[in-house]
Write a structure and sequence with these properties.
The complex is a heterodimer of chains A (161) and B (255).
Chain A lengths: L1 H28 L13 E8 L10 E4 L2 E12 L4 E9 L10 E6 L6 E6 L12 E2 L1 E3 L4 H19 L1
Parallel strand pairs in A: 1-7, 2-6, 5-8
Antiparallel strand pairs in A: 1-4, 2-3, 3-4, 5-6
Chain B lengths: L1 H29 L1 H5 L2 H11 L4 H24 L7 H39 L2 H7 L4 H39 L4 H11 L2 H27 L5 H30 L1
Helix pairs in contact in B: 3-7, 4-5, 4-7, 5-7, 5-8, 5-9, 5-10, 7-9, 9-10
Classes of the chains: A alpha/beta (161), B mainly alpha (255).
Chain lengths: 161, 255
């Protein structure tokens, strides 16, 4: 009797433990806003200032030639220049990125999520922790482009009249 | 004349049933605290409703996740956005499929067991015997079973979600060669705490509904072999309909 009771307790314990582990995973690991355990991987932070970051979010990938090399770890507004200060957390194994590299915000696919793409420069000095990317290119906001296009074509029509 | 009278009769009996279920729910909830003070009974029921449903939940979760992976990949590849597979599967599982499918499986696996167990107690006069000894069967039989199901459901749903996402990852990353980093970073980017909250609230509501229906049908089962069978069938049918209807209401409320 006691042994049967104990096995029930053990089964229940296992089930409850598994359930709460799953709930814990869902609430802390899955949402981008949750605390990330795998963040602890060895990486260094580089700052990049953009005129406009479009829909870039914290946690977005940072890639170089299409290869994922890190992620966006923080986005803040720099109130002295009124630019977006984006902290890029790049893995230690990609330490040899030329200092004069260019950071650009791109969109994966036509309507996909934004990510930061880094194009290598020619310098033989490399980016290190707390250094800033010199050259940046703002996000291309599709709506603005469409607006401009229509404004242009409307202007041309007006000139022809 | 007689047709409208029959319709009136049907409406009245349905109203009576809704009223009876509500009264039964209040009665069970009133006995919930005393049931909590007897953890032995409660643990046994969490074991019955939860731990014994674990294998079927995990197996189904894995296959649902893998099917989502295959279908999602095929669909998304047409738009060149296979990398969004993780997002589509994770959001679909967390917000919709996890709670709903877990509730349906729960009704089939645990709900029927509850209804037939209580129904058989009714049929063999065990409940009547308890009443004659001035022991409230709602307190010692119904409330622990109801609470056990109510507690087990969100945990089962969370397990279903995790296994499902793992199944999608198996198809997407291992079979279709989506880069692991892209898969997970896109998923982590898109899932918000709000989505998880929606899933958990849904599973709590479904847990309440399924457990209540099961214990109600069992408790008021016709005390015959046929009656117990009927109660079991009604449990599954009513639970499935209620879960899908409640799901619509909850989804509309959350969007």
């Amino acid at each position: 009797m006691a042994a049967a009771q104990r096995s029930i307790d053990m089964g229940t314990g296992l089930f409850v433990l598994l359930g709460f582990a799953a709930l814990g995973f869902l609430t802390t690991q899955l949402p981008g806003s949750g605390l990330q355990l795998h963040e602890a991987r060895d990486s260094y932070n580089v700052l990049a200032k953009f005129d406009n970051i479009g829909g870039l979010k914290v946690g977005a990938p940072v890639s170089m030639a299409g290869v994922n090399i890190g992620r966006v770890s923080a986005i803040q507004l720099d109130t002295s220049e009124y630019k977006a200060a984006v902290t890029l957390s790049i893995e230690r194994s990609f330490a040899r990125i030329p200092e004069d590299s260019d950071a650009e915000i791109e969109t994966s696919g036509l309507l996909g999520a934004n990510y930061v793409s880094i194009t290598a420069g020619g310098s033989d000095k490399f980016l290190h922790a707390a250094s800033q990317v010199q050259f940046t290119q703002a996000a291309m906001v599709l709506e603005n482009l469409i607006n401009k296009f229509f404004a242009n074509s409307a202007g041309k029509q007006g000139g022809a009249q | 004349m007689s047709a409208s009278a029959a319709r009136g009769q049907a409406i009245r009996s349905n109203l009576i049933k809704i009223g009876a279920v509500t009264r039964f729910l209040l009665r069970v909830l009133g006995q919930a605290l005393p049931a909590l003070s007897r953890p032995r009974l409660l643990i046994e029921q969490i074991y019955n409703a939860g731990a014994r449903s674990l294998v079927i939940i995990m197996l189904c979760g894995l296959f649902v996740g893998m099917v989502l992976g295959l279908q999602g990949y095929d669909l998304l590849a047409r738009f060149g956005s296979e990398s969004a597979l993780g997002v589509a599967a994770a959001l679909g599982l967390i917000r919709e499929l996890g709670p709903v499918l877990t509730a349906l499986l729960f009704a089939g696996r645990a709900g029927t067991a509850l209804a037939s167990e209580i129904g058989l107690m009714r049929a063999t006069d065990q409940l009547t015997a308890m009443e004659m000894m001035a022991v409230d069967p709602v307190r010692y039989v119904v409330a622990p079973r109801f609470l056990g199901g109510f507690i087990a459901m969100p945990l089962l749903t969370a397990i279903f979600d995790c296994i499902g996402i793992y199944g999608t990852q198996l198809i997407g990353v291992v079979m279709m060669r989506i880069p692991t980093g892209t898969f997970w970073s896109q998923t982590v980017n898109a899932v918000e705490l709000r989505d998880i909250r929606e899933g958990v609230i849904k599973s709590l509501v479904f847990g309440l509904a399924c457990s209540l229906i099961a214990v109600y049908e069992g408790y008021y089962a016709e005390p015959t072999a046929e009656g117990v069978g009927l109660a079991t069938t009604r449990t599954v049918v009513t639970s499935a309909v209620m879960v899908l209807m409640l799901d619509y209401v909850l989804t509309a409320a959350f969007l």
